[in-house]
Structure formats: structure tokens, C-alpha cells
Amino acid sequence: MSRKGTKDQNDISLIIGTLPKRLQKKFAASCSQHSHAAEDAENAEPTSTPAAAAAAAAAEATTRPVTILSKPKGNAGNVPVLDASGCSSLENRSNDVGIPGILRVNASPAARTDKARSGNGTRRRGRSHPIRMQEQTPLSPLSRVRLTTDHPVWFEQLLNMPNAKIIIQLYDQLMVLQQRNLILNNWKNFCSLHRQLQEAFCGLLLEQLKFVCEHKVDAFFWKLLFYNVRDYLKRQHTDIAHNHTLLLIEQSVKFYRGLYEKLMTKYISSRCESAVKVVAQRLLICLGDLSRYRANHLQLTDFAEACKYYQRAQELVPGNGAPYNQLAIISIYNHKRFDAVYYYMRSLLTSNAIQSAKESLLDLFDDIRRKYEETEMKQSPMHCIAGKSKKSKQMRREVWIYPDGMRRLHRTDVKRKIKNKANIAEVNRYDELAPEELLPRVVSLYLYLVGKLFTATDVECMYQLLGKLQIQLGATLKHDNLLSRTKLMKMVALNVFVLEHNKLKVERREMRYHSFNFANSLFGLMLSKANQLLAVLADDSTDLQCFADAEYSRVNTYLQYVKIYAQWLTINVELWEPVRTEDHSTIDCWAELQTLFEHIEGILNKLDIETDHRQMNVLLDEDIVLSGFEPLGRDVVKRESYQRGSERQQFIERIQKILQFQEFYIQHQDSLQLPLNASFTIEDLNAAMQVALNDFDVGNCITSTSEESCTSQPKVEEDETIAFSNVCDDVTQLCKLKKQLEEKAKVKQICNSKLEEILKLVDSKLYIEVRPRYLLPDTNCFIDCLEDIEKLSMEFKRYTVIIPLTVVKELDGLSKGVKLESYRSSKQNQRIHHFDEVSSRAKKSLEFIRSAKNNVKCATTKGSIINASLFALVEETYASNDDKILATAVAVSKNVSSEQCRDGKCFIQTELVLITTDRNLRVKALARNLAVSALDEFLQWANDCRGST
Questions:
Q1: For the packed helices 273-297 and 322-333, what is the interaxial angle rounded to 10 degrees?
Q2: pLDDT confidence of 753, banded at 50, 70, 90?
Q3: Whole-Å CA distances, 176 to 31, 103, 227, 347, 407
Q4: What is the pTM of this model?
Q5: Which end of the chain is more exposed for a tag (fewer CB within 10 A), N or C?
Q6: Is 904 left (phi over 0), alpha (psi -120 to 50) or beta?
Q7: CB-hemisphere CA count at 13 Å for 548?
Q8: Element (H, E) at 404
């Protein structure tokens, strides 16, 4: 064929492609008639005579429209009229004539011989020319559609199944319609093929269940019969395609529903229980997807039917993450972000996890972060305080040690009062909110914090927001049934999910610590609420037999949370670690846990457990919901051997399992406490600081610089001998000394630069360990809080009150009062009562100082301690009163403190605490590295100290 012939052939194909649809339908109808004739020819009985065989072969060659891609048979002469593969060998391609891209008609043998004869006279170059031109000439748009029918591997096994052979032929015919985009034009033929494939698949599923489960045949037919067809119809954007899509969904729902019922009826008591459950779960997921597609197609907002199918699928095989992933999609449709996060989490923490859920979870957390920062964070007074403090980096850290030796954490902050006022304002704000407004705020903030821990971003402000979350949760728990049992169960599961996400990665060591503190804070809040309810049950005057299930239900709501988290703690004891700083702990969950154990022991002594159980296995609600949850173990609960008891029976079963955790907790509780005699400086160094210090070696710097100097030394010496040959030896020695000094300066510069890089990793440069023994109050403490000072000296004799002489002299001046002649105006007369009150309190303060016992002393600005009765004999130099008090505190602190500085960090141990509420004096004291506290704060700390001892 010449170049011109090939071009004309492609032009003809273009013309055929532009024909009206009416002619194309006629052509498609003729193809379908030939397909039925081909089937009759294949199903006919074999002929006995050669003539009959030749006639049958000719009929087959002229009627069969599709080549079934199976193993090649011995008869190679039967070449089909319509080649579904769209390609053949070069030899066959040169002998075919017809319309390219539509079909290829095999030429007769006579035509082949004529063509061969006409080609004998041409040159050798001309014989290969049509083939080369056919390869190089671009095909028409219709011929570009490649009609290859790639079969799955398991199709070969269908050839050995008598009732399943037809699947291969039907599949090839359906693929021709799909690849040629003829489904809408031949909708009746498509429906016929679709129905036959459904019947064949149903028979294969019921007869070869293990084969279907092993090769995922159900997933193959789902895409073939529905998903790909729906996707094709969706791209058409016509009314006919829209109607056909709805018809396809309805037919598929009817088919899958009947198939599921047949499957469960046949294999209801089969030995291959696992395969039945797996296939049944896939069918339920298909039904859920179909219900979801139908709701979206009809623009409905009710996805309850789809959700029901997904939940039934989850109950069959809890270890599969696919149903949870689909439930998350439904939750997003319903704008329930909390449920969507939970279901995505469950799909990740299963034995068959859906990894694509992680990307969806990241997108969801980003959306939650953006919406929260746009709305909630601008309205909270605590956020305003947090936003201001975030600009300046905290370079000071204090660790306060109780007198009994136990380490507790306490932070002295100039803005502590402002923070307390913000907390009070926040509590009042949420107590006044309506329940329907409070719950969305709690859920929004909770998801915001979980997203921070999951993505490991911007953890600095997490603890400020965690305190806000606890305030919100505390206000929420005051309302009965506002936080349902199911929602609390999902919250503890999400806490465990964040811990599991951060526990295995070395680079997430710090995030694991923050996640553990976050989970413990909410754990302590639930323990506190449970203890309030259990205290009534543990009372001796309470008769437990009179309690109804409704009262046990309230307690079970919080005990369920406690039991789940205690179970995770038992499995992951290696993750237990103490709190590093006071800011990271808002509630002592371990003290609440000890109280819970005491209440449970008292309740169990009052109960008759044997009569309550009645020899039955009680199934807990959380064991059903969290079945297949990887962090709590892979055990799947078998409901047949258990019974769901009443609320009272579940209460008894639950407290018994919690009490089993007590012995385990006692054995490992040391890992939750800071060491008694360990240096706090090592504990407070963060992981990045330790890695940098380990990598840093001054010796390496010196050796590297010395090697460089040694390599350059010969050249330098040669230059010196040439330039300074006539100079005396003293000048030469000075030059060598200069080079040595330059080398040392270079080493020092390298060391300083590396130390600066290390210090950038440290969030605090000043560490103060406070062991309170000496208390130094200012004048305002005696005027405003004299009763508290008297209580402090009488009840807490372990502390020594040191009073600066400047304070005594101020009190002496205030005790004299003012002259009435100085206040003759009416406005000034109103202030006389105030001065009288100050004068009277100053006199009482002086009497207290004179009559004080051994734990009250006076001190000079030089730091000398004298008896309180001799204070009038000492004279002070001239200075402002605040400066004198500060000088006294600094002088006394030198005698009771020790200071060490290394690696750019300062470590101070002191026994003196300056007691003042004066802002200027506090700032000056903090600038001189003194421990400062308000009197009410210190009294609260001292009461906690006495309560712990």
C-alpha cells in the first residue's frame, strides 16, 4: 500500500466517525446480531464430515465478533472478523482490509494471492514500505482507542469450572462496549450482559466461597458491574445518563441485598466462618456505598441507611479498617468532625489498616485548626494572656522542694495574678453558657489539641489551652448526660491513638511526653468526677441494694473511661514518666487514682458479688465497641459466650477490673515520681540539648586546628627564614608566640560558636532549686495579711520569718498615725479612717514582732541576723525602703544559697523566699535571681506540703 493509500484510509475513518448516530446505531445492532450467531455456532455440536466442519469454520469466521483471550488452540486458521485486541502481528495486519479503528475484515485467500502477485514486480524497498508507513502514520481518533482485554490471573482457573466459563466471554463482550463508549447506545445489550454477569457471579460466590474470598472476586465484580459504569455515566452529563445511573443503583442494591441473604442462609452454620464473615462484610460495604451514592444522586441529607450497613459490616470483622473509613466519610457529609476523626483513627488502628485515612486525617485536622483559630481563640481571655506571653521566651525555671524531701514543681511568675484572674473569668464564662453552646466549644478545643499532638506543631501554647479545656470539661460535667457515654469512650480512644502515634518514633520523644500529660490530665478529671459519685456509694449509711440502674449508669459513664485508660497503662508501662514542670500538670491524677482504689475497696466489702454475678459472664459495653482496637489487644469479643448484664452487674465487673490494676500500679508507681536526690539540672535539660552536648568536643576542635597549623607550618617557616634571615632570634620567637596565640584564639572562637548553637536549643538558662526555710516579708504583708503571718509562725514552725529592719522602722512610722490638723478639707477627712486602720495594724505588727518566738528574727541590710527585741539599737544607711528590703534579702540569700555556672547556664540552690505583692519589688528581686512568692500562694503551697506529710 502506498503512502497515499494509507492517508486515504485514515481519512475514511475520520468520515465514519462523523456519521450520524442513527447510522452508528445500525452498525452496532448488526454487530450484536453477529454476536448471537457466533454464540449459536460455538454451542453447536461438532460436525462429523469435513465439509460440515469447513462450513462451521466459515460461519464462525464470518459471525464471531470478539476474540476471547484465552490459551491459543491448535487451529490457527480461524481468524475472527472483529479483533477485540485492536492489534495483531505485522503479517496479519498487512493482509487485513477494512475501516481502521472500527473493525478489521479478513480478506479472502484469492485477494491475498492477487495482492502477492501484484507485489512481486515491485522493488524490495516497496514491499516493506506499507508496513513501515502503517507504523509511522498517526492513527485516526477512533483507532486510538485500544481494545485490549487484560484478564485477571484467576481467569485461568475459571476454565476448569464448568459453570464459570461463561464469565470470560461475557466479560470480553462488556469490555468492548465500555472501551468503545457504546454503553448508552446499546443500553439493552448492556443490561443483558450485566444481568448475566450478576447471575454468573452469584453462582460462583455460592459455590466457590473460598476462591472468591482469596482472590477478591467480589471487589472485581463491584468495579466491573457498578463502579466503572457509574463513573462512565457520570462523565456523560446528559439526562439519559442521569436516569440510567439511578436505575443502575436500584438494580445493584436489589442484587447485593439478595446475594447477602443467600450467602448468610447457605453458610449460616459453616465451618469456613472466617471466609463467610469477610465476604459478607464486603457485601455490606457495597450496600452501604450504594445507599450513599443513591442519597448523593437524589441530593438527600439522610445517610442513616448507609451508616447502618457500615456498622453491621464493622461488627462482622472488627479488625478491618474499611467500614470505619466509610463511616468517617458519612460523618463528614453530616458535618460531624468529632466522629470523622474517631472513625479515621479506628481505620488506622486495626490489623488491616487503611493508610489513605492518614492523609484524610491530616486534611481534617488542618481544617479544624483553621476554623478554631478564626473563631474561638479570639474570644477567650486566657488566649489573650497566652498570646502576650508567647512573644517573650521564658528563661527562668524554678523547682520547689517540699521539706519532707519529695519533689514538687512550682513556678514563680510575675503574671501569676493576672493568670488567676483570667482563669476565674474563664470559669464564670463557661458556667453561664447554655449546654447547647458549651458542648460544641469543648469538642472544638479538644480536636484542636489532638490535632496539635498528631501533627507535632506549635506545642508551646498547648498547656495554656489544656487548662482551658479542663475548665470547659468541668463546666460540661456539671450537666447530667451532656457528655454521653459514647462520646467519652471515643475521647479516651483518641487519647490512646495520639499516644500510639508518638510512642514508636525516636524523633517524637518530646511529643510522647506531651501526649502522656494530655491524656493524664483528662484521666484525672474523670477520676475526680468518679470519686465524687463513688463517695456516696462507699458511705457506711448507704444501702447499695436500694440503688436503681439509673444511678449506677451515671457512675458507669466515668468508670468506663477509667477502665479503658487503665487497660492501656497496663500494656504500655514503659511509657510512664513523671511531670517535668508545674505548668505541665493541672491535676494530680495519681492521687485521684489512689482515692478511687480506696472507694472501690470499701464498696466491694459491702457487696455480695457471688449472688450478683449468678455464675454468668458479663459483657461490658466498651469491650464490644472497642473490639479489634489494636492498642488494647487484638482479642475479638465473642458475644455468644457472654451476656450483657444490667447496669449493676456491669458496675461490679468494671470495678473489679479496675481494682486489678491497683497491684500493677503499686509495682510501677516509682516511674511516675521524680527522683528524690537526683540533680534537677539534668532532668530539665531537653533532649536536643543533650544530643548537642554529646556531639560537642573541645578536644576535636583543638586537634583539628593544630593539624591545620602543622600542615601550614613548614611553608610558614620557609618564608620566615627567607624574610627574616637577618633578624635576631628574639623577633623569631615573638612571631612564633603570635601564631600560637592566634591558634588559641581560633580554637576559642570555634568553641564559643558551638556553645552558642547549643544554647539556642535550651529554653531556660537559669535554674533555681528552692527549699523554703527562711521567709522574708515586706511591709505590705504585715499591713494586709498580719493574721496569715501569725498563722505561719504558729502552725508552720519549720519556717523562720526574717523581718528586715527597714520593715520594722516603716511599721514604727505608720503606727504613729497622722495629725488631724493636716486634713482639714472634707475630702481629706474621708481618708482619716483609712490611716487610722493602717496605724492600728502597724501597732499590732510591732507587738507581734516584740513578742515573737525563736522562729521570728530581724536582719540588717548587711545580712546580719539579730534578735527581734534589739532592732531599735541598729542604725541603717540612707536608701529607699524597697532598696533596703531588697539589699537585706540579697545579703541573707548569700548565706543560705549556692550558685554554679557552666555551659552558659546558671544553677542556684536557695532556702530564702521573699514574700511580697509589690510589683516593682518583685521585678527587682527576680532580676537578682531571688525566689519570690505572694503570701497567699505560699500558704497554699505550705498547706499542700502539710497534707502530703
A1: 20
A2: confident
A3: 11, 12, 17, 38, 78
A4: 0.62
A5: C
A6: left
A7: 1
A8: none
